[in-house]
DNA sequence: TTGTAGGCGTTATCAC
DNA sequence: GTGATAACGCCTACAA
């Protein structure tokens, strides 16, 4: 057990061959003779040789490393997308490292810097809520490191994107509320700095208009991180109103669940007093009572698509295509929070 | 924008100094004159210099990179521990990359190999269910890369460990069931290949014995990944029995929730017909109705403790301490699934 | 089929 | 205070 690990040079010396031969043998280069190769591989194994990727990466100018930047991995949407990314990336010989921004702009900038310094082959990112200045991503552009933004993207940035049509999804959700007879539809909106929450708000408004309902600013709650606490806070405010909404579209499942729970505590019934729709079809939406009507946004598939797109950019390098945008399907899933089980 | 990024060498040439001076200036080395330093930093910024960590890592033999290996990041316990790890690691100047094994032995071995090759400064791991052969971790030992195992550890391996007392936690859970009057306590066990599930089963048995209850093998359901489906399957089997249990301790919250849901579907009431206890205090346990009695295992704190322990090993390198084991506290949280709200 | 030599970009050690 | 030089471990043109 030497203090320092054996290297190719060491193996070469022991076997009386050159380092290039060792290097080639270990990579199954065709030009190496059968017996030399076997011999080298055997002793490499015996001596516990471990390739040094750091050196190899430096030399090859390639790391086989994809960086993923997401707001918070403990949100179902993100952990699912990461799973999708990982599946595709590993299959293609890349490993994935994950950076959590906790929706902080600073952390996002730092993450991008680390990934640039570490020469990641590509980056997949979902923007932090705080992020509006995007110079760090622009800088990325002239490092030739491909970027895919997913879900929360930025329109000011020309880059590859994978997203759903949030406007359309929100429209469907609110149109459904209108069709089941809601007249006073409220909305818990997310941080409007973020593309998706802006689009969901627009979709909400459009659906009301399309159904000849008036848009009441008092019925729009402007949230930020859409945590359970925020949801409870808004729900309480809502149930304190004189003229209460009879339907609500929440920009995520977490706040929708809070509304249902608050309704229960305050003896309102869902959907009779108020119908509730969430967003993302997280596991909890099936478990809560009444179960939650929500939008399925296919997070896992978004992750897969993002990784495929990124790897294509890394490997094909088609100079003609400047950027590509993929829209992933979404569906309204109707459950008891809008249509009671008979 | 040239095709390849500027390096220290390039900066040196442009400024008419040596690379060593550039290197030192950018790191605020004291021996560099005020004006030279400023000048170098300014042009570095202007020309968009990005340090190449790959080269630096090779030279310094240090990557400031901690690898984390977990079964599945979409389980609340793991995403919380990762958050704890990240917080501590980032604070100390390390970045964290995450590998998901999906409980597969092969993926675990591959992850360790990638991290060894990439010269991670340390590894934090939670064993995959499939893992019983631990040679890959033993190999790690003679690379001098410190390892911390957390939660699901391995007794055959001398390494740093951070865990809770699962035996004790399970004992508390089942003792509680006995004290509220349950006479026929069932258990949904996890994969017994895993230390924690073995300990929870032991704790269960010990609590029954301590309360003079007989251990009925028919009441022990041997699960594997403890998914919702497994939970439903066992719950249905349980409710089909002639003599039904009147209490059940589930080795995780997911299966406990399935039991509650199945009970509801089959018109049994919780806790009157059967009292239910889960494990991990996941967010869902507060939301389900009735809310779930469970064990709080402080995942976030386990993550923090693991990272602190690892970083200590990386930086102190105290040759006297071979390994260290930390036991994190746990508590029984009593909710409506065992004690109805009045 | 194998060897030689140079360099990937940085930093540590000497020297001046 | 600054520079020259070598080395981290690997890969690859070129040569033999």
TrEMBL record, chains A, B:
Name the keywords, alphabetized. Answer: DNA-binding, Transcription, Transcription regulation
Mind telling me which SUPFAM superfamilies this protein's record contains?
Answer: lambda repressor-like DNA-binding domains (SSF47413), Periplasmic binding protein-like I (SSF53822)
**CDD domains in alphabetical order:** HTH_LacI, PBP1_LacI_sugar_binding-like
- One matching Pfam family is LacI
Boundaries of every HTH lacI-type domain copy: 6-60
Keyword Cytoplasm among UniProt keywords: no
Entry annotated with the keyword Cytoplasm: no
**PROSITE patterns, per database record:** HTH_LACI_2 (PS50932)
Q: Which InterPro entries match?
A: HTH_LacI, LacI/GalR-like_sensor, Lambda_DNA-bd_dom_sf, Peripla_BP_I
Instruction: List GO molecular-function terms, semicolon-separated.
Output: DNA-binding transcription factor activity; transcription cis-regulatory region binding
Name the UniProt record assigns to this protein: Transcriptional regulator, LacI family
> Which species is listed as the source?
Kriegella aquimaris
> Taxonomic classification, please?
Bacteria, Pseudomonadati, Bacteroidota, Flavobacteriia, Flavobacteriales
